[in-house]
Design a protein that fits this description.
Shape of chain B: flat
Helix content of chain B: 10-25%
Number of domains of chain B: 2
Mean pLDDT of chain B: 79
Largest interface: A-B, 42 and 51 residues
Number of helices of chain B: 5
Strand content of chain A: 15-25%
Largest sheet of chain A: 4 strands, parallel
CATH architecture of the largest domain in chain B: Irregular
Radius of gyration of chain B: 21 Å
Oligomer: heterodimer
Strand content of chain B: 5-15%
Order of helices and strands of chain A: HEHEEHEEHHHEHEH
Number of strands of chain B: 4
Order of helices and strands of chain B: EHEEHHHHE
Family (chain A): Belongs to the universal ribosomal protein uL13 family.
Shape of chain A: flat
Low-confidence stretches of chain B: 1-25
Distance between the termini of chain A: 77 Å
Organism (chain A): Agrilus planipennis
CATH architecture of one domain in chain A: Alpha-Beta Complex
Structural class of chain B: alpha+beta
CATH class of one domain in chain A: Alpha Beta
CATH topology of the largest domain in chain B: 30s Ribosomal Protein S18
Low-confidence stretches of chain A: none
GO cellular component, one term (chain A): mitochondrial large ribosomal subunit
Strand order of the largest sheet of chain B: 1-3-2
GO molecular function, one term (chain A): mRNA binding
Largest sheet of chain B: 3 strands, antiparallel
CATH superfamily of the largest domain in chain B: Ribosomal protein S18
Number of strands of chain A: 7
Protein name (chain A): 39S ribosomal protein L13, mitochondrial
CATH class of the largest domain in chain B: Few Secondary Structures
CATH topology of one domain in chain A: Ribosomal Protein L13p, Chain: A
Strand order of the largest sheet of chain A: 6-2-1-7
CATH superfamily of one domain in chain A: Ribosomal protein L13
Amino acid sequence: MSALKRVQQWATFARIWHIYDATWQNPFESAALLKKYLMGLHKPIYHPLADCGDHVVVINCSEIALPGDEWKKRVYFHHTGYPGGASWTLAWELHKKNPTLILKKAIYHNMRGNLQRRYTMERLHLFPNESVPDEVMKNISNQIRQIRPVPKRLDHYTEDEVKEFPKLIDYPKDYIIR
Amino acid sequence: MQFIRATTNVVLSNSSFLKLNLVKTIWTSKPSYLKEVREIEKGSELIVQGVNYPSPRENYLLKNTNASVCPICSSGLDIKHTDVLILSQFVRSDGCVLPRRITGLCRRQQKRVSSLVAMAQKAGLMSNLTPANSKKDPKKRRGWKKYNKYFDESTIKLK
């Protein structure tokens, strides 16, 4: 085996570490994307028994965005097993308790319930903000592109940018600007 | 500098009673950039002068290519609720949408713009254009309202 082929072999079976910024991203759309990297579905050598999945580091999990009023409409169910042990938690309440849990559950439920799922989840590293330990950060070699563009708030534009942006309408002549 | 709605010159004697009366009858609450009021004191006379002021938008106005339709229709833009630089042009400093007689939009676009402004406000993207007593930082809102949310523009129902 030549040196080139040998390195190619290592590169093919090496576990790659990806990073994903969850700022303003829908956790359920992101789950379908991140699942592919975790299971190794993006690789041509994929096979359910191949164990070729990668690591995914997700940062800013507390900054995820849900559409419309889904924060108060989506409900997470839990049952302790005892009579009267059922509980329903709204998405925003769950997010308040643990800002990484919505994304974790979304990815967990996006995968099929087989014996491999728990091991695949071990390769997922969720962080509520940007602070990632150095021993995790030093492995990262790829960034996964965000699905939705991050919107910019009006007060984060400079005054000149707002003033010099092309205007669609002008005020009438006698208008008092308020 | 004070700003006022009056257009004609008002000449007053310098008595305090008249000054007080003037303040009550003529609206001096907020600055207007289209009308400016200058006060000149000449001996015992106070001259209040209202002068036109050029609009701050004059130089940045997009040329309306088709004058028979409203500015948004003629521009052919598909405005999203995240386009705050466009939406803020249709909003007063307290977050109210300008009425149709001011904006000059067609009925359809006016309704769409007001819906988009509501979406942008709920998403906390125009939090500096809100009433004075409101919390400017969206993170300080109560309960579920403090978390990031986005909207689908196809949910706006238009005829």
